[in-house]
Amino acid sequence: MKLITNEKGGSGLNKVLYISVCFMTMSTAVTSAQNLLSQLYAQLGFLNLGIVCLFIIFIMRAFFSIICPHVMSRYSVRVGVLIGTITQIIRISGGSFMALCHRFQSEEGLCHPSSVIFVNIVCAVIGGIGAAFMWYSQSAYVNECADDQNKGLFNGIFWSINQTAQLWGSALAAFILGRADHLTFYMVITIFAVFSAFMMLFIQDPGNSQQKNKKPVHNEESMKESIQSFLAIFNEKQYYFLFVSLFFSGVAIGSYITFLSAAATEVVDSDDVFVTNQKTGYVFMALAVGTILSGLSTGRIADKHDKIKVYTAIMILNEMALVFTVLACIFKSFSLAVFAGFLWGLGDTAIQTMISTVIGFLFNGDKNLFSAYRSIQAVGIVYAALLSIIVPRSHPLIYYMLIFVTLGVCHYLYKYYLVQFKRRSNSLIYANEKQDLELSRRSLTASLL
Known about the structure:
Blueprint: H1 12-35, H2 37-43, H3 49-72, H4 77-103, H5 113-145, H6 151-162, H7 164-177, H8 182-200, H9 209-212, H10 220-232, H11 240-268, H12 273-304, H13 307-331, H14 334-362, H15 367-390, H16 396-448
Helix pairs in contact: 1-4, 1-5, 1-6, 1-7, 1-8, 2-3, 3-5, 3-10, 3-15, 4-5, 4-8, 5-6, 5-15, 6-12, 6-14, 7-8, 7-12, 11-12, 11-13, 11-14, 11-15, 11-16, 12-14, 13-14, 13-16
């Protein structure tokens, strides 16, 4: 394995390991709250507010991902991840405020329901904007620490470590919510988020010369050009298979974020809130185990095998997770729900790893494609969140059938555009080989003369 070094010493691998631990600490706080957001908010008396907040978060993330390349051209990726982490603390504070009002059974003044809703919406907006810059910076950082031989490995290492947050977060949720109230839970995850922000202060520059030579752009025209450059990639048919798969990944991730807890609740079928929260936490712990195993293996597999074939297989894995979730709801089987959670974890980390690897390897880490990655994926998550608002939480089976149809259509379009991409790639290879032969012929003729 080749390690990348810079003038300051230290390896690219060490930097990836450090930022992975930073993100894992932050994600422990965010994902533990996010996975149970709709369930916790409903228990606190705000039925659909959790889903609405998720909708706002990912709408903001989708929109601001478009301008990330332009804004971040002025600053280092260290600034992006630090600011992004601080906004996640603000995002969590909305739930903390709601839980505080609930503990003291107050609905007056600042704790009036309309004030609680307003605070949570504002926190969701800030959290969504910050997440756009944070995840864009993360993708850029890891790929700048790697080269073509280890992009898959480095991205796999990042996601395997980061996704252990699913395990720690789920364990925290199962332990705390099974024994204490919501405010205690939010206080603990806030501590994790604050500590992660402190760790982010010590992230080193990736050592990439392009980062060091960045020149700030101050005129408004550059922003316009940046947006036009981003929009121009949607006219390139070679990217269509990737765009469809990005939406696919967003729908898959969004479906388990917004409704897996509802499916687990129906399977558990208990009136005891503590029992429901605890067993739902077990489902997400199984999901966490899947994310860890996937992260440890996907990157290495991607570096050794055809990346497109691996990518396609992982899309099928996500569809299998959906099938087992539906079966769990039909047969009211907690064991199937746990296994479905495990498959969701495998699919989540694997597809995140492969997206970064495909963009980094096949498309030379195009910054606009990294923006499209977060933007289109966020649109897919928003779509899943919208469906969860329309479909009652008491009918998770209907919701997952709609998701199943959506993923099936996406997979069909992915295969269709992938064939076109391969044809175009083969044509370019043939044209380049023909050009090389012609140049060799001319050079040989000239030498003979």
